[in-house]
């Protein structure tokens, strides 16, 4: 089986003071840099449908209302190499038109160029799912791709 679309095509990250976040059609990934040597017992992470909070050694790093809803039971966090916390959130709305413009409602917004690239990526990912025999990972897209691009579902095959 081939690698997932985002592994073949790369990611479009949005940088933040604490790390970065990026998204696919189904998931939002958050990568938080923490002091080297951090242990799992130093981490406190709460993932709810519309809220996230993360603190390390009692210091709050990330807290607030998420841009959109997620599936609470499927959110996970891991500590990698004792210096990076990776959080994976499963989007409730997995439509290509659901491109988060920011991680939290009023914080960590993608700049307009990054937002445009994220939307392009989600539209290509949608095309890949709709056409499993083709590889869109290196494709370029132009024109109307906002809100998930054109809808071809009503066309007769």
Provide a short characterization of the protein structure:
Helix content is 15%, strand content 32%. By secondary structure, the chain is of the alpha+beta class.
Characterization of this structure:
GO terms for molecular function: unfolded protein binding. The protein is of the alpha+beta class and 157 residues long. It has one domain (5-130): Immunoglobulin-like (Sandwich). It is 15% helix and 32% strand. It contains 2 helices and 10 strands, in the order αββββββββββα. It has helices at 5-9, 112-130; strands at residues 14-15, 19-23, 27-33, 43-47, 51-56, 59-65, 76-80, 84-90, 102-104, 107-109. The strands form 3 sheets. Strands 1-2-3-8-7 form a 5-stranded antiparallel β-sheet. A 3-stranded antiparallel β-sheet has the order 4-5-6, with no helix packed on it. The chain has a two-stranded antiparallel ribbon with strand order 9-10. The protein is elongated, with a radius of gyration of 17 Å. The two termini are 27 Å apart. The relative contact order is 0.19.
Q: Give the total of beta strands.
A: 10
Beta-strand content bin: 25-35%
How many structural domains does the protein architecture include?
A: 1
- Element-by-element helix/strand order: HEEEEEEEEEEH
Class from helix and strand fractions: alpha+beta
> What does the average pLDDT come to?
88
Largest sheet data:
5 strands, antiparallel
Strand sequence of the main sheet, in spatial order?
Answer: 1-2-3-8-7
């Amino acid at each position: 089986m081939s690698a997932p679309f985002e592994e073949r095509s790369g990611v479009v990250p949005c940088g933040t003071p604490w790390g970065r976040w990026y998204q696919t059609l189904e998931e939002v990934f958050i990568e938080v840099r923490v002091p080297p040597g951090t242990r799992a017992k130093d981490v406190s992470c709460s993932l709810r449908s519309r809220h996230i909070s993360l603190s390390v050694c009692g210091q709050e790093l990330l807290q607030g209302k998420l841009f959109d809803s997620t599936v609470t039971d499927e959110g996970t966090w891991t500590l990698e190499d004792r210096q990076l916390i990776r959080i994976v959130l499963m989007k409730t709305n997995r439509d290509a038109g659901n491109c988060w413009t920011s991680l939290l409602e009023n914080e960590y917004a993608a700049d307009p160029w990054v937002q445009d690239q994220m939307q392009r990526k989600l539209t290509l990912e949608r095309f890949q799912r709709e056409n499993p025999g083709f590889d869109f990972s290196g494709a370029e897209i132009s024109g109307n791709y906002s809100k998930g691009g054109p809808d071809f579902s009503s066309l007769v095959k």
